[in-house]
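in:
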């Protein structure tokens, strides 16, 4: 690394400094000439990548002071990557320089690196590593001889390391991909952007992955990791396939249609307009005919097949839904085909996720720390590994291995983060991680951020890896957006940033927050999975708007015409061969010529497409996608040294690895292990640990809390080097304080504070509860009234029994209560919209029943028309009815939670999972209605069959429709015996929630579970309403 001067020093010469990787430094005074601006500048530090071998001696020619024209010329041996900053002085060797007239230039001989060492070794004092400030980003220009300064040479005591990076550079090694002194491409002028892309057009290739061999770093840990997760991934995929096959095999067509998994009797046609170049088919039942209730939504993968008679003859096609209405469904496919006999759509699944997770786990074999793939000026390797193996593999070390001192093998976190060389960023991060940071001129302007959010941003920027715990409503999305804004808009870092989440909904929410923050995002997703409000930021939209798109369209049309001619020629050739025509040779020659033309055109189209993708991805401030989609082919044009992962606690650990295997060296995991865990279908995979996210594993390990008062004590000194720094966002802005009170106490040890109350103790008006007779019924005798007389939540107690429907549960009494609540809310609040109301139910059968009751134009819907009128009754059609999983990361003004379970034995199944209850109770902003049998929930017995209870809880009912019925299938078998295990004596789980595979019977009475404590709290606050007696329970 090189240090350049901040101002003119006594001599009229400029010295260079090579900063070693470690060790002490010597002071040298050999003058090296370089142009320097008269304006005072910050000390600059120049960094290079690790390269091949170095030359021991190389003469250093003094820089000719000949004005700006000399500065603009490109030295032959210097690569283009440093064009936008100071050129290294050693590249002047091949310059033909005019002899300077000043006497100063006549005196010193042409120095070499060894001469510099010999000259200064005896008198050089030792001093500590200097403080380096980040420079203002702009190109220096040479001016006059007076702008030449001298600076001492810094060098490690080991003279053999003198100028290591310089000497390596002189032998043609490549510079680093991301020089900290460069500016983000999105912040350059159009002329600079054009020049930047011209200099960086390289062919990217995928190097082979070699299996790690014994003796290499982390060999035992990698084998342990792979032996654990690879079988679990396979088990999960087999379980998903079994669910789909069982549903299609055992369910009748009537049930598939009734449950919303299939639509038959369709007719389709190809619409003229494409969906970003992909053909779109439109399916309907007939002119104006509406579909019945179904689960088909935008972004879902579907299978198109023929009628029962034609199925054996027709090949099914997979596609993605891009638009759904009451009368038509639009599906995009890879190519066009004859739609004549196709009339059936089924919800489908894919094995893409398991394939990409498997590849990510295998990519741990790649050693990027010590064996970075080598490219050239025209070829650039695609990075297929991560620099974070020391963090990921800490808990997988072999206990039998011992260090030379006799202790346990230590895998400390050794690699620096992506911004470690930028001292301006490090200065800001180190100041703002502390309470009451001292701002200095030049700091980014930060508005409306609380102290924990500032600490989280500083932690995400300043550390190689960090964990940000974000309880409900604490502004995780805002914190991520502000972090990206600081890095890209203020510090203008050149490193590409990737943001991944578990769900597409969360990605779209992040896009909206990033746009509001003033940064330029790029949305990458499968067709149909992008919300229309952010479609302009999608990759497809950017491709259509690119200047090269007309050229690509023309090449695509040429390819279509050539392929049609080739097919005709091939058909004609077969006929001539059959007829033994003498013209067959000329036809074959014409066919081969067409094949060559197709290959040439295809190559040209590929080159244009790759150029477009390269320019679009590198021009964005941040790229947003899901963890699974981060491995898509479209993102092979770019590597990601910086990754921020939202919803990290919901991702299976192998899925979290996918974005990390693109050269990640800087990672921030944002999530909350007190909310929903990963969705697991296989009981065996769940038992093996697939249900524990990377976020949860790290935060329950040796994480080091940054926030005062955190529930985890700091690690001891022996484990501090391996601690992952953590910050919890501790101020919520979503919920009325009444709603947030119990979750804050129960799940976050009282650390979660309300940010919705002003200095006078008044709640913001936007969170005022809506008018409701049920809220008023418990308000008159409410003991605590500091936030107003009308509470924001109530528990509706009833004794209506649950029923078993197939393998699921349904409670018709409770469904009617939910409808009464909705009817009352719409009647008393004229401005309340149906889209502001959400209904949560844990069982698929209850979801189906509520969906039918609220569906417009259905027979049960007449009750709403009669009481509300047709206009207000139409609002029920926009009310969302989903499971807890479906509402993860979402919020509504009003939430109605239907618990369903009501029986005399007190079994509640997976409702006892404390994390699911946390999510269910924290989705509402203004009002929360919980409907259930208080006696059953207080008892809270839980049974397990092969771990079925929690598998059902995590099966994704509502989050992924293809897994919807696994919840109902297993939940019904969540047995009728309490057991001692993860759900302690029938209570809720604490830290470990993975159920064992063996059924254990016990007669021990259940302990006080999470529902019992919640109902006790409600009872203390006087918030339980008896539906049968129409009054508050005493």
């Amino acid at each position: 690394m090189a240090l350049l001067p901040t101002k003119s020093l006594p001599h009229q010469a400029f010295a260079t400094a090579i900063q070693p990787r470690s060790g002490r430094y010597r002071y040298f005074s050999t003058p090296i000439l370089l142009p320097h601006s008269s304006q005072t500048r910050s000390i600059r530090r120049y960094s290079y990548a690790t390269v091949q071998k170095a030359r021991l001696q190389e003469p250093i020619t003094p820089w000719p002071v000949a004005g700006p024209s000399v500065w603009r010329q490109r030295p032959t041996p210097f690569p283009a990557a440093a064009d936008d900053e100071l050129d290294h002085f050693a590249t002047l060797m091949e310059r033909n320089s005019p002899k300077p007239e000043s006497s100063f230039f006549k005196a010193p001989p042409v120095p070499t690196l060894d001469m510099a060492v010999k000259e200064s070794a005896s008198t050089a004092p030792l001093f500590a590593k200097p403080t380096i400030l980040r420079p203002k980003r702009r190109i220096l220009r040479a001016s006059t001889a007076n702008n030449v300064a001298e600076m001492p040479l810094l060098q490690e005591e080991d003279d053999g390391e003198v100028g290591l990076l310089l000497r390596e550079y002189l032998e043609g090694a490549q510079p680093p991909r991301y020089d900290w002194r460069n500016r983000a491409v999105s912040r350059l002028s159009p002329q600079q952007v054009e020049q930047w892309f011209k200099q960086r057009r390289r062919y990217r290739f995928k190097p082979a992955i070699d299996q790690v061999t014994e003796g290499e770093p982390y060999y035992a840990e990698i084998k342990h990791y792979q032996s654990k997760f690879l079988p679990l991934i396979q088990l999960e995929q087999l379980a998903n396939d079994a669910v789909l096959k069982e549903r299609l095999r055992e369910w009748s067509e009537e049930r598939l249609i009734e449950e919303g998994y299939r639509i038959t009797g369709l007719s389709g046609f190809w619409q003229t307009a494409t969906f970003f170049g992909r053909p779109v088919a439109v399916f309907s039942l007939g002119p104006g005919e509406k579909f019945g209730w179904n689960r088909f939504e935008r972004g879902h993968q579907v299978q198109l097949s023929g009628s029962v008679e034609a199925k054996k003859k027709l090949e099914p096609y997979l596609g993605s839904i891009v638009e759904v209405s009451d009368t038509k469904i639009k599906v995009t496919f890879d190519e066009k085909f004859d739609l004549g006999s196709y009339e059936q759509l089924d919800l489908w699944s894919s094995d893409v996720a398991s394939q990409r997770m498997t590849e990510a786990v295998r990519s741990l074999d790649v050693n990027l720390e010590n064996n970075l793939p080598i490219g050239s000026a025209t070829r650039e390797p695609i990075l297929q590994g991560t620099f974070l193996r020391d963090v990921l593999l800490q808990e997988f070390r072999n206990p039998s291995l011992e260090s030379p001192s006799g202790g346990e093998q230590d895998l400390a976190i050794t690699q620096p983060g992506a911004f470690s060389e930028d001292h301006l960023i490090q200065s800001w991060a180190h100041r703002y991680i502390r309470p009451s940071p001292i701002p200095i001129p030049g700091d980014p302007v930060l508005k409306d951020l609380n102290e924990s959010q500032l600490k989280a941003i500083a932690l995400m920027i300043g550390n190689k890896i960090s964990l940000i715990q974000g309880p409900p409503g604490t502004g995780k999305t805002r914190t991520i957006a502000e972090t990206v804004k600081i890095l890209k808009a203020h510090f203008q870092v050149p490193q590409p940033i990737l943001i991944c989440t578990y769900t597409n909904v969360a990605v779209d929410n992040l896009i909206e927050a990033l746009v509001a923050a003033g940064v330029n995002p790029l949305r990458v997703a499968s067709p149909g999975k992008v919300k229309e409000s952010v479609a302009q930021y999608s990759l497809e939209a950017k491709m259509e708007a690119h200047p090269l798109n007309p050229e690509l369209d023309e090449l695509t049309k040429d390819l279509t015409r050539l392929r049609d001619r080739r097919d005709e020629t091939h058909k004609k050739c077969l006929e001539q061969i059959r007829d033994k025509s003498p013209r067959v040779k000329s036809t074959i020659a014409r066919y081969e010529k067409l094949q060559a033309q197709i290959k040439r055109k295809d190559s040209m189209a590929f080159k244009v497409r790759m150029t477009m993708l390269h320019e679009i991805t590198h021009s964005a401030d941040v790229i947003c996608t899901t963890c699974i989609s981060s491995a898509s082919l479209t993102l092979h044009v770019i590597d990601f040294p910086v990754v921020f992962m939202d919803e990290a606690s919901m991702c299976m650990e192998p899925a979290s690895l996918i974005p990390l295997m693109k050269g990640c060296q800087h990672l921030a995991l944002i999530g909350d292990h007190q909310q929903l865990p990963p969705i697991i279908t296989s009981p065996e995979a769940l038992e093996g640990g697939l249900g524990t996210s990377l976020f949860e594993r790290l935060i329950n390990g040796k994480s080091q809390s940054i926030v005062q008062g955190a529930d985890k004590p700091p690690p001891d000194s022996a484990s501090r080097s391996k601690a992952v720094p953590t910050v919890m966002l501790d101020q919520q802005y979503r919920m009325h304080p009444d709603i947030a009170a119990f979750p804050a106490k129960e799940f976050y040890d009282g650390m979660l504070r309300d940010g919705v109350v002003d200095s006078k103790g008044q709640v913001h008006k936007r969170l005022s509860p809506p008018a409701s007779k049920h809220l008023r019924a418990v308000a008159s005798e409410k003991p605590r009234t500091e936030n107003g007389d009308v509470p924001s939540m109530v528990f509706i107690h009833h004794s209506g029994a649950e029923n078993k429907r197939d393998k699921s549960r349904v409670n018709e009494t409770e469904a009617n209560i939910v409808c009464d609540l909705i009817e009352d809310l719409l009647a008393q609040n004229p401005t309340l919209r149906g889209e502001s109301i959400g209904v949560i139910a844990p069982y698929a059968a209850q979801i189906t029943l509520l969906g039918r009751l609220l569906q417009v134009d259905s027979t049960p819907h007449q009750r709403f028309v009669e009481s509300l009128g047709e206009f207000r009754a139409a609002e029920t059609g926009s009310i969302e009815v989903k499971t807890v999983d479906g509402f993860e990361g979402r919020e509504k003004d009003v939430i109605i939670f239907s618990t369903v379970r009501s029986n005399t034995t007190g079994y509640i199944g997976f409702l006892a999972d404390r994390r699911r209850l946390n999510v269910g109770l924290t989705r509402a902003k203004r009002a929360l209605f919980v409907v259930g049998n208080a006696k059953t929930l207080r008892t809270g017995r839980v049974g397990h069959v092969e771990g079925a209870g929690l598998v059902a809880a995590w099966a994704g009912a509502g989050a992924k429709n293809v897994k919807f019925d696994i919840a109902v299938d297993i939940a019904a078998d969540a047995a009728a015996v309490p057991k001692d295990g993860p759900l302690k004596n029938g209570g809720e789980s604490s830290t470990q929630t993975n159920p064992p595979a063996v059924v254990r019977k016990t007669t021990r009475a259940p302990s006080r579970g999470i529902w019992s404590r919640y109902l006790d709290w409600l009872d203390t606050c006087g918030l339980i309403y008896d539906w049968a007696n129409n009054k508050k329970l005493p």
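note: The longest helix spans residues 584-619.
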